[in-house]
Task: inverse folding
């Protein structure tokens, strides 16, 4: 196709578009591809050529036509074969490029590609998103495989793009079980030892939380996202400055941080929290080799901001979310209060104590508390104000609890917290 003239390319693109748009012809094309795979699916080269065709079609016809005729099922075949997975993900990436040309810098139109004129049907997008989410669940970090890491980054970015592009529609139309799979995939990404992957996960979660701004209304059960208690533990660890932690950490402290993090998305089981920090350093080195200079501090700052925004969105003040509820600002205060209590009870003999854990837990409530209080004041009802003030008071009581001895650094952090109130 590179040797064809521009007019000839346009003619071929128009012919492909017409072929897929005609109901009498499109099923024949799809059926022929499916029949080839059924007869010769065991031959890797046949599947490889079919995947290449799926990737090329994105440059010739609108992606919604490919989804409408379920050509993504061919891509799914490639995702199940390890040696074809990279090509399949490249095809998915090209499709997402066509779905969101503006997000990718608007360069698709200038490249002669077929930009999506009208949005795809939402049931196709839901199916497509669920497929990518299941693929994310197979991404396990390996410190010795840089190529796999690049693949995992690409898959995580695909899921993030789909969540940010269709958050409201996914929350409204996607079956609860499949939406839970998407949330689970994003949680899997949060526990992947890479700041870049974690940032995509936090942004995808934030988009879904905003898309569900009206609250969970389908049925009386909990929303399909992970429980707030689970999220608070993970986000507290990700929001912590690793440089502030001691190099030689006690086994008790290491086990506590790993418990808050949950099962890491890594091939090697974690015995200590220092091993998690080492994996983060390895993934950062992968990015330095692939992308050049990557400012780690800026990425961490952005991740911490996204974590706070996510909790702000989830924990908006609601009179129905009392202090004993499993969700809402009251629940956040209760869970963060448990983190504070554990930090205050930490080893007082160490130079810094558990000051980093205390500061992180307090900052989570501080950020969400200000946003929740503004919203409650805007609502102007007694119930809304009580839904914020009562949990906040309980949290402050937990922070101000007296002890026989306090680590000086921890005592200083606590004074800092009260001085800003």
Result:
């Amino acid at each position: 196709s590179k040797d064809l003239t521009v007019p000839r390319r346009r003619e071929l693109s128009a012919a492909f578009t017409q072929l897929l748009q005609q109901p009498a012809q499109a099923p024949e094309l799809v059926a022929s591809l499916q029949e080839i795979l059924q007869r010769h699916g065991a031959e890797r080269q046949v599947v490889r050529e079919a995947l290449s065709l799926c990737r090329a079609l994105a440059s010739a016809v609108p992606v919604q036509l490919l989804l409408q005729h379920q050509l993504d099922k061919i891509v799914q075949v490639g995702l199940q074969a390890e040696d074809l997975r990279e090509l399949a993900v490249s095809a998915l990436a090209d499709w997402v490029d066509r779905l969101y040309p503006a997000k990718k810098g608007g360069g698709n139109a200038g490249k002669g590609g077929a930009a999506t004129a009208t949005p795809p049907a939402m049931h196709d997008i839901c199916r497509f998103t669920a497929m990518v989410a299941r693929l994310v669940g197979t991404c396990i970090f390996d410190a010795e495989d840089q190529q796999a890491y690049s693949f995992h980054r690409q898959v995580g970015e695909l899921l993030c793009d789909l969540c940010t592009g269709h958050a409201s529609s996914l929350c409204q139309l996607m079956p609860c079980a499949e939406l839970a799979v998407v949330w689970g995939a994003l949680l899997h990404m949060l526990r992947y030892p890479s700041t870049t992957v974690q940032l995509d996960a936090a942004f995808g979660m934030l988009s879904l939380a905003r898309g569900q701004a009206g609250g969970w209304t389908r049925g009386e059960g909990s929303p399909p996202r992970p429980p707030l208690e689970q999220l608070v533990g993970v986000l507290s660890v990700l929001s912590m400055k690793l440089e502030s932690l001691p190099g030689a950490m006690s086994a008790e402290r290491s086990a506590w941080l790993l418990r808050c993090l949950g099962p890491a998305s890594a091939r090697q089981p974690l015995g200590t929290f220092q091993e998690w920090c080492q994996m983060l350093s390895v993934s950062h080195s992968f990015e330095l080799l692939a992308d050049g200079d990557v400012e780690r501090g800026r990425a961490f700052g952005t991740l911490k901001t996204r974590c706070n925004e996510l909790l702000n969105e989830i924990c908006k003040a609601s009179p129905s979310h009392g202090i004993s509820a499993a969700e809402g600002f009251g629940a956040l205060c209760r869970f963060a209060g448990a983190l504070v209590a554990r930090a205050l009870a930490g080893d007082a003999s160490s130079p810094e104590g558990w000051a980093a854990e205390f500061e992180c837990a307090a900052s989570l409530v501080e950020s969400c508390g200000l946003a929740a209080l503004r919203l409650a004041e805007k609502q102007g009802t007694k119930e809304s104000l009580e839904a914020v003030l009562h949990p906040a008071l309980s949290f402050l009581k937990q922070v101000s609890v007296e002890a026989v001895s306090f680590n000086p650094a921890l005592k200083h952090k606590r004074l800092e917290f009260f001085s800003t109130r």
